[in-house]
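Notes from the pairing session

We agreed to fold both candidates in a single pass and log them together. This is the raw record for the first candidate, unedited. Please don't reformat it; downstream parsing expects exactly this layout.

Candidate A
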Amino acid sequence: MYSYAKTSPPVSPPSSPVPSTIVYTERPSSPNPRQQARLTASSKRYKYLRRIWKFKQMDFEFAFWQMLYLFYSPQKVYRNFQYRKQTKDQWARDDPAFLVLLSFWLCASSIGFSIVIGLSFLNFWKFLIWVIFVDCIGVGLLIATCFWFIANKYLKASSSQGPEVEWGYAFDVHLNAFFPLLMILHVLQLVFLHPIINKEYFIGTLLGNTMWLFAIGYYIYITFLGYSALPFLKKTQVLLYPMTGVAIFYLLTLILNWNLSKGLCNFYHYRVYSP
């Protein structure tokens, strides 16, 4: 037999008087990590520049792989930029190994160019400073800023909202495009500079100016690939339009027998020996 005990309902505690005014306080929410990463672009640049002196932390093998692929499959290089966006939420490089290797090639090509055009030891250092800080970095800062502004102002699919082109990515695109140009004009051209290009023959003008055509054309093409890889940009094919002007200018130089490579050598001599 089971006995059932009768239980009384629970007694609620006496209600406290309700205040006439209720003040709600909201705790500040912690920022989203992805949003916080976007808001600390300056800290990312500082971290990037600080890593330039830490060679053991750089992936030089991967940077060298990118340099090779820039010649025969540049699309794979920008595919890696897309992977970086998915994993680290940034398009720009976070490893300065590519910039360090590019500096090495700038020094090596400047040594070869100085020997070919007959510069002294002191003038070589002046020439090297010009090539690194003016031709590569100075012009690169100007070009990257112009493309960064044009892309964010005119090429975005949504002008009012959505992601924007990172300035660091624009500078990386310039470095990617500058490396093949450097190898064509400052390395490959040296082999033919004295034997053919600097001679007073049309074949020299044709060979030298054709190298300039390929170098500038390839710079424009790799720049186009860099911005067309961004999914939030539209009508990036307009970046290929300067190719028409380059081709017309190339034909004019051949008609006028204007040797661009010889003019470049004369310009290097002038700015090195000028006070």
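Candidate B (folded immediately after A)
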Amino acid sequence: MPIKIPIELPAFKVLSGENIFVMNDKRANTQDIRPLKIAILNLMPKKILAENQLLRHLSNTPLQVEIKLIQTKTYVSHNTPIEHLDKFYSYFDEIKEEKFDGLIITGAPVERMEFEDIAYWRELTEIMEWSNTNVFSTLHICWGSQAALYYHYKIPKYELNKKIFGVFSHWVNYENADLTRGLDDEFYAPHSRHTEVKKEDIEKFDDLEILSESKEAGVFIVATKDRRKIFFMGHLEYDRNTLKEEFIRDKEKGMEIDIPKNYFVDNDINSIPKFTWRGSANIIFGNWLNYCVYQNTPYNLNEIS
């Protein structure tokens, strides 16, 4: 089944070109099925790129998915055309009376700042509080996970001595856990962050489970036992070239940055990066939509509480 997005959204053309089944409103309205309503709070500076990455994975499912894109009102992105934001994005005030099967809160390049110093922190906390009663399952990514763990559990983040940057090996802690079902014993995922949350802080809370870890990258996937909140510490949604583009960007700014680990063939930055996490990303995003959302969310969204 397809993902339902406006035909004018850039992702429609991109995903169609990859033979991914996308559907516009006109065709979706002829199908006698309730699509999953998924909201995306996009905090990434390059919003179109983030849209393409997330929608690519959300489309890899037999379920019909309807997307609502959300932006913050207290901070306006300077890296996305205002025309795009006006046409495709809503503010929280415009959708807060609605209920959603799922919500994704992306990462953001603000991890070295104190949470309370971020321009949109108060707005973000309002959205996270709203998600407790208006969203069945919320997926947080990278800094979005750190922010949510801090808000909901007062779990702090810690600055690293050196940025975790590259593609790292992970293992699954519970073989039959719904969110990680189908993964190999060893699987890969990208990380790009200067901060971390610590395992011992998470283990203080009985309702949190650490589902996946990495020797080099630490805690990776955390979830509440009821799967109403999911936390990814890395970036499974990244494309093949995302880490390469981040590396080139930082080098051009004169920043001290290492070559991303386990990424370029023989560490040759002119080579085509190895895309070793695509299958794992498809499995995990698909599991979230199926087991954590579709199999458990009420058919009548008004019953979410």
